[in-house]
Amino acid sequence: MDNNAIFWDKNFNQDKVRRILNDEKGPKFIGVAATLLSRCNKPKEVFASYLNKAAFCNNWRRIKKQMRKNKWSDARIIFWDEVYKVTLQDIDKKTLKTSKKRDIVIDPEMKAIGDKIRGFRKKLGWIQAELAKRSKLSQQTISFVEKGYTNVSVKTLKRITDTLGLRFVIEFPESNTASNQTYSA
């Protein structure tokens, strides 16, 4: 694999890249791994020349997040997500670090808004990926909003409702108490 073709805009030689990718805890690991996976679609070469499979699996969520942050192609992220699923099946589970269980809190108000968004999306015949593409958000964001997993920002909610042709309204009653606020999508 040609290191210069992948890291053409970085001042990295192959030894430096390998040193960075051999240190999962290092500050540059996620960024370099995200760049590597964003620019290469040859898993055999990536795992043979640069990245340990266990390190890849242990850090895939963080790498994927960085790839999204860098606005890399969704197709490339989907490709590596499939590689992750296959690699995870083939790898010795003892080499993987155990992930922390995340307590997912679903706010009933956010869930109600998410249900409305899902309903309107389905009426249009769109899958989540279509809404994500049209609203310039990730499919994961759409999924989290629809499930009520996240306290979505007003800006994100407006983006989604505008894309669906809905009106986002926040009404504050005259008493202006938080318990009397009405949110609708």
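the 2nd protein, sequnce then structure:
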Amino acid sequence: MEYGPITPRGQGSRFKVAPRNPLAGFTIVELLVSILLTSIIMTAVYSVYRVQTHSAKVQESRLEAQEYARSVLDMMVREIRNAAYNPLSATNGTNCAGGSSGVPSVVTATATSIRFTYDFQGTTAGSAPNGNCDNTDEDIIYTYDTTGCTGGLGNITRNGSDNPLTNCNVTSFDMRYFKQDGTELTSFPLSATDRDAVQRVLITLIVQSLKPDTEFGSQLTVTMTSNADLRNRGLPS
């Protein structure tokens, strides 16, 4: 026996479901829910985009700061390596003792400054060494100088504060000196005996990026370290 569909009844009446008018619009509640969900999704997308953009900017600033610091260190290392270079074995070269006659040498050495002389050319650029240190770039001073800088920052200067290698963005500068056997010389300023024993200079430079992160309120810093072995005194043992 087959049965037909059961029709629910209540007090003699059938339950009826009103059909939805296909032309009817959204209700206010539906619109508000849609706007809310859309806002949540857009906020999440923007947050991800903002973080990714910031990460890219940080990486770019870090690379620029590293290249900036490396260029300064490379110049220092290249010249410090030649400290006390004396191809003619001069013992009384003009200005070789830092303003007086003597042997090309490390003239002064502290934790934040070094002065050295070497003989690599004559009276004209590119000419043969002449035993003196009074020609261009044969008497060099590197130092950490805060002149004209604010906020506890400073510059690395070469031969005076009017020749900065940086842009008032150095937060720390440190120089350490070692003998050929690896012993560190720590009594500053180094004595003449200690200066004559210097074979390696370890330089640490910390700089801020030239483009501060104004959006997130932070300042990126980069630390670079490099060694300069004084060639005229042999290689480390």
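The mean pLDDT is 85. The first helix runs from residue 28 to 80.
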